[in-house]
């Protein structure tokens, strides 16, 4: 299982890296071609779509991924689960689309955000339908451990969006063009995903009924609690954007969304782990391997802390240099909200894998309480600070809400039955971050001189030098302070495809044979 989880993580990471790369290319183009106001409106529609999909898709996506992965003695278990959740997906998308159409026709979105949102909301109906079946196909394949198929679907969706949406936005179709791109891309991924799933596990099961063998009461209870959990979780993402759209200027919404996109880059690795851990740890929990779950959680927390810490330090050091280059000169106001968001985004990153492991066990009471507490703090602070300070108030409020997730979910993990901080080495990690930050910020300041890059323009030298040099400095300090063992680096590298894996494996074996602490840990026991 350890190798399977690692392979799943690397497969998901590969897909998410490509998705991240496409986002890095498309997001600034959308921002520049739409302008801050329309980009803010587009971000608001996507936030509303995400909230709607919680009620339409969460029960299906989380349920099918969890239960398909479990080992049950029930005949035709996997086939019955697929059929049950496909029927449920169809029922929920019909209800959700109908309600969305009626709400739009009644003028609710026009009243809250403006007349242009009526057309945007009708386009959102197509997005809801296409996204529902894309999510069902992807999460079903994940439940079977087929990340090698599920992740290319996500890549296909993002490629199709870029191919369709960017030309439409460039030629003047604005927000509507981007939304059409979203709907067509999701529809294409849904069709191909369902075809792949059908060849692996026939979808004719949608017309077959299990005769009462499925534990539907248990499944529906999990589905309902998943909806509550994800609603609270997604409110942390979207409440600030939607409140800004209603209470602040349109340009502020665009600048704030630009800052959020940057801050969310910190979640690349944690989201990858969260994606894999729900179904992978569900299998471990069902086999009674609780101690193995705790060990996995503890190491994951430390690795996540280290990785997101260096990313946050680098992003903070380069913010004033990179943001205007990436988004354009008019995006300078996004820098301050970004700096305010980074501490909280780091805390949220730590909470993500912990939350996924709790979901994998199926005991959602404590994860819901933890997420609900953070979401409540987020809403209260946004309500208080946005009217006074606009996007800066939103950044402070959201950062505090994000950061509280780490604290609340460690408590939640203890209640569920695993300890994610037993190997956190948090003092060593914090010391590593403080020491490494000094040369990284100094290097960024020294190399702020711009150079001309073809097709881009003037770009500070620090943009190219600080990331690789800063990473190497951070890793050296981490090993010296014992926040990270040298053998752990090579253990990860050994899981990579050749030629990296084959070259790292002999070094990994030699290091594993050595006894004792490495670096300064033999002298300093934090």
Short overview:
With 526 residues, this protein is mainly alpha-helical. Helix content is 81%, strand content 2%. The radius of gyration is 23 Å and the shape is globular.
Structure write-up:
The chain has 526 residues and is an all-alpha fold. The chain contains 15 helices and 2 strands. It folds into 3 domains: 1-214, no CATH class; 238-424, no CATH class; 439-522, no CATH class. It has helices spanning 2-69, 77-105, 108-113, 116-143, 147-200, 216-247, 250-263, 268-286, 290-327, 335-361, 365-416, 426-446, 462-480, 486-493, 500-512, and strands at residues 450-453, 457-460. Strands 1-2 form a two-stranded antiparallel sheet. The radius of gyration is 23 Å and the shape is globular. The relative contact order is 0.10. Residues 515-526 have low confidence and may be disordered.
Write the layout of secondary structure elements.
Elements lengths: L1 H68 L7 H29 L2 H6 L2 H28 L3 H54 L15 H32 L2 H14 L4 H19 L3 H38 L7 H27 L3 H52 L9 H21 L3 E4 L3 E4 L1 H19 L5 H8 L6 H13 L14
Antiparallel strand pairs: 1-2
Helix pairs in contact: 1-2, 1-4, 1-5, 1-6, 1-7, 1-8, 2-4, 4-5, 6-11, 7-10, 7-11, 8-9, 8-10, 9-10, 9-12, 9-13, 10-11, 12-13, 14-15
